[in-house]
Write the structure tokens for this entry.
Amino acid sequence: MGASAAVGAGSVLTAASQFNAGRANDKLAKFNGQLADMQADTAIKRGAFQAKRVREQGAQVVGAQKAALAANGIRVDSGTAKELAIQSGMAAELDALEIENSAALEALGYRTEKHAARLRGKLDRIEGTVSAVNTGLRGSADTYQTYRNIRR
């Protein structure tokens, strides 16, 4: 009788361990998802900050160009001088947009990682539960078989 109880107890402990491991992995995956979400937010904020700096630097370059041209007696509101300012402003804006786009792509990667982590966690939880049930059923069958063998 003691042997069948030991088999049964071992199965219960194994099943509990599998169930708890699935839950722990799920919690860890959710935490990793939260970290990925924070990284995505940081990437967007960093990109916005860097883009703002590029725009400000572009405006400073345009201002310096206009000041230099005006100091040499060139009209800055028409012709080549105006085109130069427009081109410089456009170049700065393109750089800023590229920075924002890169930040958005980085954030997308983190958000994808977040969703994958959460899905992994759900699957780990399900796997832990299924393994625990399977172990419980197998343990019950083994316990019964051990009991039957002892009774013979």
The chain has one domain: 2-151.
